[in-house]
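Title: Comparing notes on inverse folding

I've been comparing how different people in this forum approach sequence design from structure. To keep things fair, I'm posting one structure and asking everyone to reply with a full sequence. Here's the target:
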């Protein structure tokens, strides 16, 4: 059956669309059409190989296309970095110097854990660390930078009540944040990691890339790379840079180096320092061409520059100063 015939005829019985027949395409491959579920079942053995091959091609087309843009901070409108260290004003990455951000983070892992943003239960907005810093510096400590609601005197129960309103409205970000509170035992909640996983799964169904990434992290820690990959991939497609790096890491672990490099190129181009580091390392052993590494470095540096601001720098530098005071030694 040629391509034109497939568009108008049932692949099993030959029923023609428009002659009392309504055809529906195979949801996996979108190549063939059927009158009903019986025809689809009857034709499966003939169609199985082609279907799986085309479904895999469609999946890869979606997986490796340009990801969705990062969310912007609703106050400064700058792209929100996955990790604050990515928008620190360090020298531009080069092949010779390696990736300064990667070296800085590895020298002090506390920097890698520094938050990039905070979710406010009062208005449901997520604000970048730079705007939080600027707002506090202007004397508004304990106040929401977006809606100006007083936060300092609110009890855990009040925060939970505000959060639950958004959870009940099926707000994916709120559900994901509630999961995080259960995971770490915050807001006066008893730590319950099983409940956290249930909530992450719920948030993922509503399209939360963050929730998919958290689930990927959980399964990765359990050593189940197959399940981890199933969650990292939709998170990466939603624009989560950490998930994109992890997709590359898993493919590398599975021996699929070409696929790993595809993921790391996308992640590096979005400003993810781990991905850029591995692109440079593979260039040094001849697995990444000079043209590719040059274009990726340019995209990486441009993405980092877009995420940087004086306020975000100041916030991170204040954090570094506090670390130096605690440790009595300078951060590398």
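Reply #1:
Here's my take.
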């Amino acid at each position: 059956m040629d391509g034109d015939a497939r568009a108008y005829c049932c692949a099993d019985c030959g029923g023609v669309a428009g002659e009392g027949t309504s055809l529906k395409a195979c949801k996996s491959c979108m190549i063939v059409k059927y009158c009903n579920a019986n025809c689809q079942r009857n034709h499966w053995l003939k169609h199985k190989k082609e279907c799986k091959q085309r479904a895999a091609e469609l999946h890869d087309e979606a997986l490796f296309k340009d990801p969705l843009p990062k969310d912007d901070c609703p106050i400064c409108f700058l792209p929100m970095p996955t990790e604050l260290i990515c928008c620190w004003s360090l020298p531009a990455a080069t092949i010779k110097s390696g990736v300064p951000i990667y070296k800085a983070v590895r020298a002090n892992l506390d920097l890698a854990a520094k938050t990039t943003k905070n979710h406010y239960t009062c208005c449901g907005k997520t604000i970048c660390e730079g705007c939080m810093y600027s707002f506090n510096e202007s004397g508004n400590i304990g106040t929401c930078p977006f809606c100006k609601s007083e936060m300092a005197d609110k009890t855990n129960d009040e925060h939970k009540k505000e959060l639950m309103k958004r959870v009940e409205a099926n707000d994916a970000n709120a559900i994901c944040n509630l999961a995080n509170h259960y995971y770490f035992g915050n807001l006066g909640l008893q730590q319950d990691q099983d409940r956290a996983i249930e909530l992450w799964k719920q948030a993922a169904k509503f399209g939360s890339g963050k929730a998919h990434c958290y689930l990927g992290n959980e399964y990765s820690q359990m050593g189940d790379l197959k399940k981890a990959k199933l969650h990292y991939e939709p998170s990466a497609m939603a624009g989560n840079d950490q998930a994109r790096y992890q997709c590359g890491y898993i493919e590398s672990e599975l021996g699929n180096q070409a696929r790993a490099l595809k993921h790391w190129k996308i992640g590096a181009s979005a400003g993810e320092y781990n991905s850029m580091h591995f692109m440079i390392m593979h260039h040094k052993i001849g697995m990444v061409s000079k043209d590719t590494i040059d274009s990726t470095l340019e995209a990486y540096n441009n993405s980092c520059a877009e995420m940087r601001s004086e306020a975000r720098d100041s916030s991170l530098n204040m954090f570094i100063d506090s670390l130096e005071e605690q440790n009595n030694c300078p951060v590398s």
